[in-house]
Amino acid sequence: MELSTTKPGAAGIGVIIRDHLGQPLLTASRVLFHCSDAEEAEAAACLDGVRLTERLPDRAIVLESDCASVVSKVRAAGQDRSLIRVCALRLFYF
């Protein structure tokens, strides 16, 4: 997942889905026009990536992110009370 911010309240996110050899299978990007912070954008990118995997049935997935706070909130989704709680829960139960 990649994140780019250009102005307050907006962010650009990108996702790359790779196979076990590291070869790209799918890519996607979009603009978040109303984004509170980088953590929210990272969580949205993770959720977009997981949703993209629905196009690749019967494949195990490994979600990677360099945002430690999003990873920890996904792992403890039931206990999280932050603004990204809904995203974390969707990732946890995907």
From TrEMBL:
GO molecular function terms attached to this record: nucleic acid binding; RNA-DNA hybrid ribonuclease activity
Record-linked Gene3D superfamilies: Ribonuclease H-like superfamily/Ribonuclease H (3.30.420.10)
UniProt superkingdom: Eukaryota
Residue ranges constituting the RNase H type-1 domain according to the UniProt record: 7-82
Pfam name, any one: RVT_3
Protein name per its UniProtKB record: RNase H type-1 domain-containing protein
Source organism (scientific name): Eleusine coracana subsp. coracana
Source organism phylogeny: Eukaryota, Viridiplantae, Streptophyta, Embryophyta, Tracheophyta
Gene giving rise to this polypeptide: ga23770
